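Hey team,

Filing this mostly as a record. A colleague (T.K.) asked me to run one chain through the structure pipeline before their review meeting, and I want the input and output archived in the tracker in case anyone asks later how it was produced. No errors, nothing strange. Just documentation.

Input sequence:
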Amino acid sequence: MTVRELIATFRPFVQPHSWRIAAGTALVLAGTATGLLRPWPLKYLFDNVLAGDATPASARVALLLVAAAIAAIAAADGAFKALRRYILGAAGQKVGFGIQTAVYDRLQHLSLTFHDKYATGELITRITKDVDNVQTLATETLVEAGSHALKLVGIVIVTYWLDWRLGLAMLILAPILLLASTRYRRRVHAAEQEAREREGEMTSVAQETLSAMRLVKAYGRESLETTRFTTHARQWTGAAVRVLRTEAVLGAVVDALVAVVIAGLVWLAAAQVLAGAITVGVLVIFISYLREFYDPVGSLSKLAGRISRIRVRAERIADVLRETPTVRDLPGATPAPRLRGRIEFEHVTFGYVPTEPVLKDVSFRVEPGQVVALAGPTGSGKTTVAALVARLYDPSHGRVLIDGRDVRSYTLASLRPQIAWLLQDSILFRATVWDNIAYGRPDATREEIIAAAKTANAHGFIMALPNGYDSLIGERGETLSGGQRQLIAIARAIIRDAPILILDEPTAGLDAASQRIVRDALERLVRGRTALLISHDVENLRLADVILVLENGRVVDRGSYRELLASGRRFADDAR
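Output structure:
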């Protein structure tokens, strides 16, 4: 990605805070001016006071003035720096906030095809560490570079005005350091790319393991997971050390070159004093400026490596911001009315990998209000059928229709709210029971929430919790039993009041008693709604009006439970 493309990507986040950056720039100018004034009181001291021409009384007054001037310049310089740090720091935080929210929003709206390619930890790293580095570059680093550049220009101009030979000699330092830094910039960029990839892998392992801590404990795999994390952490550490080594070599080269050049310049300036071409005061200013010149030139020469590191992070963020959803509203898409729920597949072919189709020329119809079960072995395409109905993916060939219209002709914002999901792994958030049920419809009233919970057979156990509906649920609902989690998920589906339901293994993993309670709630949930039921449980299949049997991505049989059983069809327990 080119620098121009990166600038175009991040400009909208920086522009709203341009006045803060402008104020910071003004403070940089003021700070540069005070920095250039810092050695001048000393010049006056050496040339006008210590030269021996002043009387003791006037010398004491001059010393007081010099001391006051030094203190005033230092105080002004400190004030300018403090204000600059605050203003630019605040700007950086606000720029970072804008980038973070934009990246997070983009991740929410990108299609599952994008999320299928990246681990969760990798994306979290982009939202956090990568954004933090980019916000620093967008405000502090670039303004700091501008400050250094202004200081260099000012020092050269003033030095040239004092003695043109010293001014020209000072310019020798800049191109030498520029050549040295250019040599190492590509090495730093490549090393940083590897480090960021390793960091993302390490974060993904940590996130994956911590989210599955119950499984880790249950199988006694703590040591195994520690070893796995250590392996990735060691790889990241090695890559990070290589970055530091490359930057250290660059720093050593820069420091050595600066030391040699400064030694030569001091010798030249001292020779000028001995020859009577300049005063001791001018020598003091020159040596002071050399010290001031060293820091910004060294920083600017190393800035190339720093920018290369940050550029890698910026590219990772820009990749997300520039990514477009593969499933999105098409031109001419219109809001869907309240759907009746007739679902049709017309010669649908689809594969998560284009060359490996999961569904092959699938056609069927579901009438409004029907409960249609999808049965078949693992990998036959049952869950994929449900995902295409909700338009989580689009078919490669053929059409999926709801109420006689291609689902792609509806806007996503009007289609998906009319579909409710009930998954095998009931996903609950670390929030109150109330919030988890209301996730199905945030504007639901308390009375509606309670009514939905009662319909879902969940009201009784909810009221037995310490704070009832205001009880906090642990992450992923770990503080509840499997049956309780599923009942809350059913209440969430009920409150959504969607005409189409997708029930994916709704009773899997539950004990017999919990299955009966959940199944009773399911019977009430599906009344008057179109439902796609994915299940291997025979009792669940009995709820279906029609069963579609899939094998190898094709519909190979259909009929009621009794019809299929009479024809000799068997329903394997692995029928997911």
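Quick notes for T.K.: The chain has 20 helices and ten strands. The two ends are 43 Å apart (CA to CA).
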